[in-house]
Each structure stands twice: as structure tokens, then as C-alpha cells.
């Protein structure tokens, strides 16, 4: 599978993941929060806001997936979003509250961002004009 097609497909999968996480955050009943490690946590505006933010990111990922070579800035935003999410989630897990789903989310964002970065670098290498040999 060519690199661009693989990157497009992977960005679609990341967008679907983000959309599902967003919807899940918005509709998750308060009674389920303890299962995910949020003991004593009460549903709040910020939970729903996080869900809406995931939906916004999903749109960005879908736009990046349309043509990653033409819309390189959207791919870079995607990589940055995954890097920032990884950093934030790891810090939260290590310094604030060791919630297992937060650590799992950090690892997932790191993996997704790393794969996108590797594919993007390979796509750019593959599409560089050949250098003339004199």
C-alpha cells in the first residue's frame, strides 16, 4: 500500500477514534465513571467540553486525511495535537491522579502521533523531487 494511502486510512481511523471518544465523553452516564478510575468524580461541563473538543479534532483529522500531501499543515496540527495530549495526560497521571484510563489514553495518543509522524516523514521523502546527478 502506498504511503499516502496508508496515511489517509490511518488518519480516518484516528478521526473515527476521536469522534467515538468525543461522543462517549458527552453521553457517558455518571454512574460509569468509577469503572474508568474516576472515583468520586461528578459529571461536569468540562467532561462535555472535552467531548466536543474531540469532535472538533476529528474534523481536523478528516480534513488532513483528504489529501495529506496538499494539506500538510493539517497533518502537522494532528501530530502536535497528539504530542500535546500525550504530554498532558502523562503529567496528569504522574503528578495529579494515577487514573488507569488516563495512562492508557496517553499511550494511545503517543502511538497514534508516532505512526502519523513516521508516515508523514516517509510521504514527504517519497514525494521529493529527484536530485540531478552531474
Describe the fold and architecture.
The chain is elongated, with a radius of gyration of 18 Å. The protein is mainly alpha-helical and 134 residues long. The two termini are 33 Å apart. α3 packs antiparallel against α4. The chain has one domain. The chain contains four helices and no strands.
Uncertain spans = none
The largest sheet is:
none
Q: Judging from the principal axes of the Cα atoms, what is the shape?
A: elongated
Number of helices: 4
- Could you say which structural class the secondary elements and strand pairing correspond to? mainly alpha
Please report the total strand number as a whole number: 0
The string of secondary-structure elements, in order, is: HHHH
Instruction: Indicate the mean pLDDT.
Output: 92
| Helix content range | over 70%
Percent strand: under 5%
List the helices and strands and how they pair.
Blueprint: H1 3-27, H2 45-66, H3 72-96, H4 100-126
Helix pairs in contact: 1-2, 1-4, 2-3, 3-4
Q: What characteristics describe this protein?
A:
134 residues; elongated
Task: Produce a short descriptive summary.
Helices cover 74% and strands 0% of the residues. It has 134 residues and is mostly helical.
Amino acid at each position: 500500500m502506498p504511503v499516502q494511502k496508508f496515511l489517509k486510512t490511518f488518519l480516518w481511523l484516528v478521526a473515527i477514534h476521536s469522534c467515538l471518544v468525543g461522543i462517549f465523553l458527552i453521553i457517558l452516564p455518571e454512574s460509569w465513571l468509577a469503572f474508568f478510575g474516576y472515583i468520586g468524580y461528578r459529571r461536569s461541563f468540562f467532561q462535555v467540553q472535552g467531548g466536543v473538543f474531540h469532535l472538533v479534532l476529528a474534523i481536523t483529522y478528516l480534513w488532513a486525511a483528504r489529501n495529506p500531501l496538499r494539506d500538510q499543515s493539517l497533518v502537522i496540527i494532528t501530530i502536535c495535537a497528539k504530542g500535546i495530549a500525550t504530554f498532558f495526560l502523562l503529567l496528569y497521571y504522574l503528578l495529579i491522579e494515577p487514573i488507569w484510563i488516563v495512562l492508557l489514553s496517553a499511550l494511545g495518543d503517543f502511538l497514534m502521533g508516532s505512526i502519523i509522524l513516521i508516515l508523514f516523514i516517509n510521504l514527504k521523502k517519497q514525494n521529493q523531487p529527484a536530485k540531478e546527478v552531474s
